[in-house]
Amino acid sequence: MSLATAKKILDFIFENTPKNEKIDIGFFGGEPLLEFDLLRDITALIQKHKGFDPDRVILSAVTNGTVFSKKLKDFFVTKNVGFGISCDGPPFIQDAFRRFPDGSGSSEIVERNIRKALKFFPFLPVNAVYSPENVQFLPDVVDFLSSLGVKNIYLNNNISAQWTKKDADMLPQVYDRIGKMYLHFYRQGKPRHISLIDNKIVVILRGGYQPLERCRMGTGEFAFAPSGNIYPCERLIGSDDGKTHCIGNINDGFVLKKTCENSSNAAANSECQTCGLKQYCMNWCGCTNYFSTRNYNLVGPFICASEKAAIRSAFRVIKNAADEGLNFSEHLAGTPLMSIIGEVIEENKQ
């Protein structure tokens, strides 16, 4: 991306974001750290922009973990840019899905860099993507990342994979195993933020997703390709053909050529309207729906099964925690990471 294009994007962002909303700007790829100098220069543009407010703007970058150095660490720390790493799990999973061009696995170097990064970023978020080939090993993924010292674990299904009913049928058992691990960490006084469980606990205790938490693709969320093409979500850029999902180009001005077709309020499926779990469900996620059904508003069977399994597992965790007298008040406040922050502070004292 040229700096000229980046400047137009930043003007668009600062001029069009409602004053009462945070501005969340993320760098993604591909691998964004392959263009570190550009990332650094764009960050400088953001922080020098007349609309910049450090209390309002959140910056982040996600890397595949194959690149890490003191220079990078110093930049992310001094510029207050959130730093996250993608790692799918132990070597037998990571090396099956994330290989170098010569075919060699990336697990060794990624594990080493996660350990290094945790020394400077104790709340380092690590994102693990699971697919039909390894969904049954999700508890092993949690166990592996936890053994590295990761306390902030994000589990996300591969939305472009070909999921089957057989895959969906195993989800309740797999998710419940993760729920039991989650409670085990709490009992030990070593809580982990595990997105699959934590996110649903927060939503359940709040009584459902809030308006600004729902999909806002093409209205409150935009993704910008290096070409300047605008998409409603980064997951929909693909090859950046300027046609599929493209809703405009920043170089043509700030007027979008079409609006997003997604409704963030309800899915089109009739069964969703009467489902007792709908207020806790992400049936509104337009990009996830599209990859499953080729329709922003139509939920696919696997996502439906996954959401139901995650919600029910979270309900069981809440009940079991209450029976054991565990304190989940931080979840009600929407800040489940607070318990982890407390743990890290205690570790640092020691």
Topology:
Layout (H helix, E strand, L loop, with lengths): L2 H14 L6 E5 L8 H13 L8 E7 L6 H9 L2 E6 L4 H7 L9 H14 L4 E6 L7 H10 L4 E6 L7 H5 L1 H17 L5 E2 H12 L16 E2 L4 E3 L16 E2 L20 H5 L11 H8 L7 H24 L4 H4 L4 H13 L1
Parallel strand pairs: 1-2, 2-3, 3-4, 4-5, 5-6
Antiparallel strand pairs: 7-8, 8-9
Q: Mind explaining what this structure looks like?
A:
This protein is α/β, with parallel strands linked by helices and 350 residues long. Among the domains are: 3-196, Aldolase class I (TIM Barrel); 222-259, no CATH class. It is built from 14 helices and 9 strands. The chain has helices at 3-16, 36-48, 70-78, 91-97, 107-120, 138-147, 165-169, 171-187, 195-206, 270-274, 286-293, 301-324, 329-332, 337-349; strands at 23-27, 57-63, 81-86, 125-130, 152-157, 193-194, 223-224, 229-231, 248-249. Strands 1-2-3-4-5-6 form a 6-stranded parallel beta sheet. Strands 7-8-9 form a 3-stranded antiparallel beta sheet, with no helix packed on it. The longest helix has 24 residues, at 301-324.
